[in-house]
Amino acid sequence: xxxxxxxxxxxxxxxxxxxxxxxxxxxxxxxxxxxxxxxxxxxxxxxxxxxxxxxxxxxxxxxxxxxxxxxxxxxxxxxxxxxxxxxxxxxxxxxxxxxxxxxxxxxxxxxxxxxxxxxxxxxxxxxxxxxxxxxxxxxxxxxxxxxxxxxxxxxxxxxxxxxxxxxxxxxxxxxxxxxxxxxxxxxxxxxxxxxxxxxxxxxxxxxxxxxxxxxxxxxxxxxxxxxxxxxxxxxxxxxxxxxxxxxxxxxxxxxxxxxxxxxxxxxxxxxxxxxxxxxxxxxxxxxxxxxxxxxxxxxxxxxxxxxxxxxx
Length: 312
Prior knowledge:
By secondary structure, this protein is of the alpha/beta class. It is built from 15 helices and five strands. It folds into two domains: about 10-85; about 90-275, CATH 3.40.525.10. Helix content is about 45%, strand content about 5%.
């Protein structure tokens, strides 16, 4: 895939905030691809220039951090197989999740070209007898994020923000959420991708939603915690202070589209990407061939840090 040209506003932002220049872009892409080819556990993976550039931008062109994040990206697919195997949008369980909207639905791009991409979780109210199936929901969220990384430069450059509604969620539903799964969700959504989360907005959540947050809080860095907001409002005015009303669907006070419109659009996108998802499953690390020391305790739920990775 050739490198996509950026709109002028995004190009200026990459130069000012992400340390990108045309000369550095070419040399750093070559450097990362050469490094990948020399890693026995990753050398069957050959990302195109655009994919490597996405990670360089997500890491502000810091070469070592880019290597770490790309290693993380492909290694999590091996370590957390339950989230990355069987990614078929036509499977019965995934069709249910897509049609019910139980995933982070990308909203249309903001009229502001430098605004974060907004993802919305607002499904029909949970029924008391409904199984949450958090693994399938998480798998679907990661598939959506993979599409955005591949196709949306603004997602990588501007980051993303999530609006989270959890109507009808009960403590009974939370029995399906293990601490280990919450850890996997945190690591995979916030540390795996070359896109920074700019905000997480919980709107009118039930008490079980607060319980879910308390379960996850020990895993979340102070920096990310500072970007988490709770909005209890009947008119969404508090939310409009952060996300323009014009960017939101009619159900949240916008005027140009509905959630069902956007769900239909993205469900179609996911089906069109089916062949890519099935083929992409094979692109993962082979941990039996890793020769460099890797402190991977963070991925297995023990205190540790991926930053200690020694890969040169």
